[in-house]
Amino acid sequence: xxxxxxxxxxxxxxxxxxxxxxxxxxxxxxxxxxxxxxxxxxxxxxxxxxxxxxxxxxxxxxxxxxxxxxxxxxxxxxxxxxxxxxxxxxxxxxxxxxxxxxxxxxxxxxxxxxxxxxxxxxxxxxxxxxxxxxxxxxxxxxxxxxxxxxxxxxxxxxxxxxxxxxxxxxxxxxxxxxxxxxxxxxxxxxxxxxxxxxxxxxxxxxxxxxxxxxxxxxxxxxxxxxxxxxxxxxxxxxxxxxxxxxxxxxxxxxxxxxxxxxxxxxxxxxxxxxxxxxxxxxxxxxxxxxxxxxxxxxxxxxxxxxxxxxxxxxxxxxxxxxxxxxxxxxxxxxxxxxxxxxxxxxxxxxxxxxxxxxxxxxxxxxxxxxxxxxxxxx
Length: 378
Prior knowledge:
Blueprint: H1 3-27, E1 37-43, H2 50-65, E2 70-75, H3 86-92, E3 97-100, H4 125-134, H5 137-147, E4 152-159, E5 166-168, E6 182-184, H6 189-195, E7 199-201, H7 205-213, E8 219-220, H8 225-231, H9 233-236, E9 239-242, E10 251-257, H10 258-262, H11 266-302, E11 305-308, H12 311-331, H13 333-356, H14 360-368
Parallel strand pairs: 1-2, 1-3, 6-7, 6-8, 9-11
Antiparallel strand pairs: 3-10, 4-10, 5-9
């Protein structure tokens, strides 16, 4: 075969191969690799607080579930904006999202404080979440944020155990013992304690203990045994009063900038929703484990004395709350609407829970309470 024919055949084969490759490319289009969506989040908590850990747990779930398609970078309180400025920062897009509590936005609308402050008509935090998801609360919260021009999407999760009355220089036995005290709380709880003639200062978590140490506060509440211990309360006080109606049923809030969230694929938004629900369950389980350990350790290792808040103080809180909700309902239509929705749900749900729940304290006392000495034989 001549050299000319060999070259011609090689050219034919090369041309045919290229054509076949082109046809294959048309038959099997290239699958584009999805780009990673990066989100910058900030919590309203110091890095060492267990609340920041809860926020991190949520972000970690989303990052793992999305297999790298969605990556949330979590920053602590103050990294971009102060804790109480988080809602505005997320709405404006300064941050893509954040982790906090609805009560922090009380200054924008008193109705927002109802998702955390007060006795919630006898509902615990998990029941408030049930009302939010199935009793109309979610739609009302969305409506309030829209009326405030807040371009955010809110996910509530993480039912908190009853918060203590707080840390004091000495135990309080009656409401009169609290008069004139410089005290820290947030949300509509401020109004409860003001009605009790307490001087209130709303400080974010990281600023409370330093203020107590400098004498700027006489007493303060934050949330739970683990957070209180990590923030350093036992270093400035050895007395903690347990049980209170000021924030008996609070939960966490995860915020997203609405435009950012809406721009994401539907499957990523679905992953976020599932991660919220999973984080809610995990938070409630972790809280039981960690809070109980720190509760015991503060007593055994740091000399903290815990006292039950006397019933007269609790009744004073309820009486103050009655006056507050009556006044706020007249002043604010959203407040009245949210309050009545909660009342309707609570009347049914609490009756069911109170009628069906066994007295767990009876079982606890049976196994761990003081044992009676056996009767002496005559």
